[in-house]
Amino acid sequence: MDSKIIPLQNIDEFKSSILVEERVAILIFTAEWCQPSLNLVTQMKKELDQQRKRLNQQTGVINIFVVDHEKEGSYQIVKQFAPTTLPYVYLFEKGKYIAQFGGLDVFAMNKLIKKALESSRAL
User: Fold this and answer.
1) Cβ-based neighbours of 78, under 8 Å, separated by 6 or more
2) Where is the Thioredoxin domain (predicted)?
3) pLDDT in tens, 9-64
4) Which of 26, 50, 82, 116 has the most Cβ atoms closer than 10 angstroms to its Cβ?
5) At a CB cut-off of 8 Å and minimum separation 6, what does 113 contact?
6) Could you give all domains of the chain from N- to C-terminal order, each with its CATH number?
7) Has this prediction a pTM greater than 0.70?
8) CA dist 47 to 2, 9, 15, 79, 116, Å?
């Protein structure tokens, strides 16, 4: 089973998904007008699924949750994390933040994916 891209519309969806997630989850802040953000979401999902397949899927599914920085309802999530650039990525394990990076940084993305897969294997 491949990772899913799941849009979050408000703080309640955030609390009922990532904070109660019993596994590893990725949160990405984006905006419709920010093409690098949109590219990163697609690129991260593709790379995550490819690396899971290389590991013979010995890790759990890692979903990617996306918050559009400017959508109505996302204000409280944005306020809580205060991303300083777009895209901005956070990694969570069992509802707790464990890593982050900002911008379209392929090296940082691959490092975060590796950490996500290692964490997922440990669960």
Assistant:
1) 29, 67, 69
2) 1-118
3) 999 999 999 988 778 999 999 999 999 999 999 999 999 999 988 888 677 889 99
4) 116
5) 44, 47, 48, 51
6) 5-122 (3.40.30.10)
7) yes
8) 11, 25, 26, 29, 12
